[in-house]
Structures are given as structure tokens and as C-alpha cells.
Amino acid sequence: MGMIGALMISGIVIFLHNRYFDTELPEWMGTFSGSSFVVIVGFFALLPVAFLSASLWPMVQSGMRAFQGFITGAGAMGVWIFIFMERILIPFGLHHLLYFPFFYDSAVVNGGVFSTWATQLPELAASTESLKTLAPYAWPTLTGLSKIFGCPGIALAFYFTAKDSKKKKIAGLLVPITLTAIFCGVTEPIEFTFLFIAPVLFVVHAVLAATLATVAYMFGVVGAMSGGLIEISALNFIPLMAAHWPTYLTLLVVGLVFTGIYFVVFRFLILKFNFATPGREEDEEITFHNKADFKEKQAAPKGSLAFMILDALGGKDNIVDVTNCATRLRVNVKDESLVKTDSYFKGIGTHGIKATKTNIQVIVGLKVPSVREEFEGFL
User: Do 99 and 86 form a contact (C-beta atoms < 8 A)?
Assistant: First the structure.
């Protein structure tokens, strides 16, 4: 089941952890609380999952292979569908499931596109025949073209639709994140900004990225081009420019045309629907977003024992490190004067403390493993 199986098991484990980690066990069973209890529950919970996987996965795998076969044999249409799905699945983190069998496994060629392409480089460099003829398998990795040519168009649209009073500031923000997208292939600051503000723009981006890759493919462009300019140069331009410069010149022309298309389309949509892209906000602060903004930060439960212990130790800024033994939470603090008294610790539900200067031992009991894990989550 590969990556899919790993993700499925991870999801089940996360569910079990959230459901049973805080389960209160009798004091005499306290050593099995926390993560240990989750492991015990997980062992029995995953037994039926194993049987179901063995029964159902062959059917799922057959469906996936049929889809891969369709994509592989569909020519330019297959390229468009693949690139579109790779882009559109990014917000959900599922794009890895799509591209991994193509990039690194044997969906289109034994060993994967990257391995085969790297092995074939000497042959490609020695021939002036079309790259599309020499390496017809190397189309799934055209996902990087939108990073090099699409992101600059998006950045220009952000700049020219920003308020005049904010253009200088937004230029200073856009230049580094755009260069990062172009050279390193890291597009998160730009992509997640307009995904965060206007999801429809991300759909448009996926459509344009797929169209860019398809048009380039129709003009004979293939290669290991999933990353930024640095990676693409190392695997394509530097070793192959002498023999295949007409192909790369064509790619440059097609790419720059699509940079213009990106700019025109995004500028039109931003102005038409008045999207609050960077530089168009009502407040003075210009904000770019990332994937972390989609994850809600869980507030610390004020009544939890771990949180009260942390507060009694002077807060997270006063903590150097934390370990535990069978019954005690062992904490090194920066300033022992910020630590509450033994009676205070007994009052919040512990059995007191043993302090030696900055080394504090909080006597918790057999549930200390779960308390420590929760404690570390607050740091």
C-alpha cells in the first residue's frame, strides 16, 4: 500500500491518540496510561484494518493502475489532467499520492521518471533528436514550469493591483518570495496567500499550470522539471543545452507568454471580484500566509494538570528541558525564583516537588508519561 497505507495508519493513530491519550486509568494501572495505552488500543484496533486492507486493497490498486494507464496513454490530455490534479490537490496534501508513483516508481517507466532521466542523460546529451522522442516518459515532471513562469505573473498581478500607498512595501515582500519560487520551487508563500483569500484563484492557477505544461509538451518539452530553476538547470539545461537548445528556447517563449497570461487573468479577476490580495487590504499591514495558517492553533486547556504545572514553574520561557522517571517530572528551569512553593504544587493536584536550585522534580505519580507529553506540547 506504500504511502497510502502509511497515511491511513497515521490517521487512525492520530484519532486513537486524541481519543484515548487522556483516558484516566486506575492508579495501579497508571504506568500504562498516556502513549502506552494508545499503543495497546492501537494493536487491537488495527487488526481488523489489516484484514480489510488485505481484502480490499487489490481492488483499489487495480483502479489506480487503470487510472495511471489512462493518464499515460492519453497524450496531451493526460498531461493536462495530471498537472491539474497535482496542483489542485496541494491544499489537501494529497498531491504526493498522485505524483509519487510517476516520479519515483514505475507508473510510466521502470524505476520512475527521475531515476531513468538521470541514467539516460549521457544518451540525451549525445543526440539532437527530439527529447520527446528520446524520453517520451518524462512528461509528469513538468509540474515545475508554473513555479518558474506562473508565479512571476501572479506576483506582478499582486503588485499592479495593490494600492499606490502600499506598492513599495509589497514590492519588497514579493521579490524574495517570487525569487524563492523561481529558483527553489518553494511556492507556498504565494500559493497559500491567494488560496487563503480567494480559493477560486487557486483553481484558476491549477488550470493555467496544467495548460502551460500541456502546451510546452505539445512543443516537444519534456524533462525532470518538477522543482525550481536550480534543480531544473542541473538536470536539464546544463547537461543538455548544447544539443537541445531549440527545445529550451521554445520553452522560454512559451513560458514568458504564460507569464503574461497569468498576469492578465489574475489582474482581471482580482479587480473584477475585488479580492483582498496583498496590498489591497483595508488595514495597513500586508500579510502573506502559509500552510500553517490553515491549521487552527489549539489553545491550552487551562484546567489541565500539565498546564498548571508549567504555569507553576514560571511559564514556558522559564523551561530549559524536561524528562521524567517512573513517577516524577524532572525539569530544569532558568530562574528558580519563579517556581511556586511545594504547597502550591500540592494544591494543583501533584504530590509536591523536590527542588535543587534550578533542577525541579514534580512528583506526579504513574501517569507522568502522559503529563510529560502534554507538558511538552505547551512549550
Answer: yes
Distances (CA, A) of 34 to 46, 167, 296: 18, 52, 23
Catalytic, out of 165, 325, 343, 357: 325
For the question of whether the overall pTM of this predicted structure is more than 0.85, the answer is: no
SS (H, E, C) 212-258: HHHHHHHCCCCCCCCCCHHHHHHHHHHHHHHHHHHHHHHHHHHHHHH
Whether 184 is catalytic:
no
Domains in the chain and their CATH numbers?
Answer: 2-73 (no CATH), 88-293 (no CATH), 305-377 (3.30.1360.60)
Grid cell, residue 233, equals: 538547470
Quick: pLDDT tens for 19-56: 888 777 777 777 777 778 888 888 898 898 888 888 88
**Dihedrals phi, psi of 355, to nearest 5 degrees:** -120, 135
Distance separating alpha carbons of residues 23 and 36, to the nearest angstrom? 11
Q: How does 321-336 read in b/e, with b if 16+ C-beta sit within 10 Å?
A: ebebeebbbbbebeeb
